[in-house]
Amino acid sequence: CSCEGFQTRKREIASKEQNGRPCLGAQKQLRPCSGMCGRPNGAVDCKMNPWQSWSQCTKTCSGGQQYRSRVIVREAQRGGRSCQGRLDETRGCFLQDCPGVTRRDCRWADWSHWDVCSVTCGDGETSRVRVISVQPQEGGR
Asked: Which of 86, 89, 84, 87 is nearest to 45 (CA)?
């Protein structure tokens, strides 16, 4: 991991001479530092293979989907960095409408009334719900 912090050093006065000059300079120094933090020797980072090719589109018109994935080929070991990012992705494809097809988009019903609060005094919770009144059809959203 990237570590940003401060490095300190200090020194002690070895002897205080009577009627001598005071010691010059700071007794404590502080400086910024960065680098690898807490990474043990022999750490092995996680490794993922490259993305596979996108799948074929699930439809030829009116909005299909394509998928691709990748796998972890080596888990992190001995304090190494873990893998970052998703293992699968989805994207839309063939978004144009099919000839003679009318899309119908999803529609929500109105919200219900708020439920009773979970407490009568202090911080509580309340909720409300709504349902889908029209399901999407023919590639609608």
From this structure: 84
pLDDT above 50: residue 28? yes
Cα–Cα distance between 92 and 139 in angstroms, integer?
11
Nearest to 26 by CA among 45, 13, 42, 7: 13
Question: What does the angle CA 131 – CA 88 – CA 90 come to, to the nearest 5 degrees?
Answer: 55
Identity of the amino acid at 73: V
pTM for this predicted structure: 0.44
* Cβ(94)–Cβ(64) below 8 Å: yes
SS3 11: coil
Pick the more confident residue, 52 or 94: 52
